[in-house]
Amino acid sequence: RVVQEPTGSAPAEFIDAFPPPRAAVTLANALGNAGVAEYRARCFAEARAFHATALRLRRELGEVRGIASSAGDLAQLLLLPSGERTAAQVREAMQLYSECKEVRQELNDAGGVAGALRGLAAAYLQTEDLSEGRGKALACLEEAA
User: Fold this and answer.
1) Most C-beta atoms within 10 A of its C-beta, which of 17, 58, 102, 145?
2) Residue-wise over 91-121: b if at least 16 C-beta within 10 A, else e?
3) Terminal CA-CA length for the chain
4) CB neighbours of 144 closer than 8 A, spacing ≥ 6?
5) Dihedral of the CA atoms 101, 105, 111, 117 (nearest 10)?
6) Are 54 and 70 in contact (CB under 8 A)?
7) CA–CA separation, 58 vs 103, rounded Å?
8) Collapsing DSSP states into helix, strand and coil, what is residue 3?
9) Three-class secondary structure of residue 143 per DSSP
10) Residue among 95, 15, 85, 90 nearest 44 (CA)
């Protein structure tokens, strides 16, 4: 794929409508949307890169709801059955789902907490020690219920 740099410049009224913090949130949202588009195109490495960048930006901004969303999206991508999955990717997915769960709890988002717990359970089932993973996965699902 060839990505061309945009030509020209944005009109001043557009730039004024999005002051720096808001512009950064808009950029983080655009990066997350690009990650979704790449996922739908089955370009998983590119999708992971977009979601990782969006998460990094949202952490810098302290955008709590966006952090939960991006962490969950990135964790899900790390666990996709696309090629070889490493133990490090599974551990990273677990950390991201745990972060997502904590943020969702702070937001009193019961549905989001349950979704993060289901993702965490899926990650535990992909650990090297399957018997331990099963027990932890079951505990997550019981907590989600």
Assistant:
1) 58
2) ebbbebbbbbbebbeeeebeebbbbbbebbb
3) 44
4) 113, 114, 117, 118, 121
5) 30
6) yes
7) 13
8) coil
9) helix
10) 85
pLDDT tens digits, one per residue of 9-67 = 444 454 455 555 777 888 889 999 999 999 999 998 899 999 999 999 999 888 899 99
Amino acid at 43: C
Phi/psi region, residue 56 (left: phi>0; alpha: psi -120 to 50; beta: rest), is alpha
Closest CA to 56 of 43, 71, 44: 71
Q: What DSSP character marks residue 80?
A: S
Q: Is the alpha carbon torsion for 104, 138, 88, 42 positive or negative?
A: negative
> What pLDDT, in 10s, does the model give residues 104-137?
999 999 999 999 999 999 899 888 787 788 888 8
Alpha carbon distance 144, 37 (integer Å) = 29
What would the two tokens of residue 35 be?
A: 């990650």
| pTM confidence score | 0.78
Phi, psi of 79 (to 5 degrees): -100, 0
**CA–CA separation, 66 vs 2, rounded Å?**
29
The amino acid present at 86, given as its one-letter code, is T
